[in-house]
């Protein structure tokens, strides 16, 4: 008698290494989504920009220096010979003192507010710059440029126009410097308003 051939079937738990088995492994699906609980938007928190604080400190220093210069100017204007030499009358002194006080007050108060990241400090200083520019226009046409016109030999209206132009450029540059915190995305300023 012949022995029967033994046929062994592969175990279903063993790996089939035959290349022509016909079954291919296919992975289907999406990448894992990590939920943060905030609508899958990640917000990076960082410290607010220190531009408002730095400019606020510079404004306080500027206001203090203006106060010293205004006091020195008042002391100088107390002498009649100096007033006559500079061609300054009581109207010009009053306008200069008013402009100086407004500039000092707005820069110091606005600087303190900006140091505390209050948006109204920027607006106060910008209004102070605008008022100072208007005062410089009035001063240039009230006869304060007579001495400069005599010294340079130019017409008084030309000297007044040059003075207004220089004042406009200086006011614009100062306004841009003060407005830097408003142009920064992470400025840290609150929503305080100057009026209302």
Number of strands: 0
Structural class: mainly alpha
Whole-number mean pLDDT = 82
> Could you list the spans in which at least 5 consecutive residues all have pLDDT below 50?
none
Q: What level of helicity do the residues show? A: 55-70%
Structure annotation, total helices: 7
Beta-strand content estimate: under 5%
Biggest β-sheet strands, sense, barrel: none
Order of helices and strands: HHHHHHH
Shape: rod-shaped
Cα Rg = 38 Å
Distance between the termini: 114 Å
Would you mind describing this structure in some detail?
- With 196 residues, the protein is mostly helical.
- The model has no long low-confidence stretch (mean pLDDT 82).
- The chain has seven helices and no strands.
- 59% of the residues lie in helices and 0% in strands.
- The termini are far apart.
- The longest helix is centred in the first third of the chain and has 27 residues, at 51-77.
- Helix 1 packs antiparallel against helix 3 (90-115) and helix 4 packs antiparallel against helix 6.
Descriptive key words:
196 residues, mainly alpha, 7 helices, 59% helix
Short description:
The chain has helices at residues 51-77, 80-86, 90-115, 119-140, 146-152, 156-178, 180-183. By secondary structure, it is mainly alpha-helical. The chain has a domain at 52-183.
Secondary structure topology:
Blueprint: H1 51-77, H2 80-86, H3 90-115, H4 119-140, H5 146-152, H6 156-178, H7 180-183
Helix pairs in contact: 1-3, 3-4, 4-6
